[in-house]
Amino acid sequence: MKTMSIILIRHGKTQGNLEGRYIGSRTDEPLCPQGIDELKLRAYPPVVRVFASPLRRCVESAAVIYPGLAPVTVDGFRECDFGAFEGKNYAELNGRSDYQAWIGSGGELPFPGGESRTAMCARCVQAFSALGLWDLPGDTAIVAHGGTIMALMSEFALPR
Fold first, then answer.
1. What's the distance, CA 97 to chain centroid?
2. For the residues of 60-124, what is the DSSP string, one character each?
3. pTM of the model
4. How confident is the model over 16-68, as pLDDT tens digits?
5. For residues 81 and 115, what is the distance between their CA atoms, to the nearest angstrom?
6. How far apart, in Å, are the Cα atoms of 53 and each of 92, 96, 160?
7. Four-point Cα dihedral 113, 116, 117, 119, nearest 10
8. Distance in angstroms (rounded) separating the CA atoms of residues 68 and 55
């Protein structure tokens, strides 16, 4: 029986990442020069297909890593909607009652005006399951966000 690998790759860095900001599904940031350079320094296994979040940082990362393969974008692989926290960093949020409540919940409360971790994970798992990867030959890469990868790993990785 042939085995297939699914390679999960987090997108390269953006300026917002360097600044420690919550960069979710509302901000379509490009990669920063440092992010591009870091992607080019790594070696990635060959694949026959690439899926990616539709956000620019993921599509650009896929193009750097696998220049010969056009990624198929999957809307369900978008990063979490951070709502009122989008684009802000810890220094800007610290002391706010809504941020303290979210921190106090261990990240389980929905982001104010945004998405809950549970809803985001369910969206990512549903999108992954709909791909039908098990019927396709060859290894596959998914270029997505840290939250997307966390959601997929928590549902499908073994050992749990």
1. 27
2. HHHHHH-TTSPPEE-GGGPPP--GGGTT-BHHHHTT-HHHHHHHHTTT-SPPTTS--HHHHHHHH
3. 0.93
4. 999 999 999 999 999 999 999 999 999 999 999 999 999 999 999 999 999 99
5. 5
6. 27, 31, 24
7. -120
8. 19
**DSSP H/E element including 36:** helix 33-41
CA dist 14 and 21 (Å) reads 10
List the beta bridge partners of residue 51.
72, 142
pLDDT, one tens digit per residue, over 144-154 is 999 999 999 99
d(CA 95, CA 20): 17
Residue with tokens 């992010």: 35
Instruction: Give yes or no for a cis peptide into 110 (omega within 30° of 0).
Output: no
Residue 49 has phi, psi (to 5 degrees) of: -150, 155
Beta bridge pairs of residue 9: 143
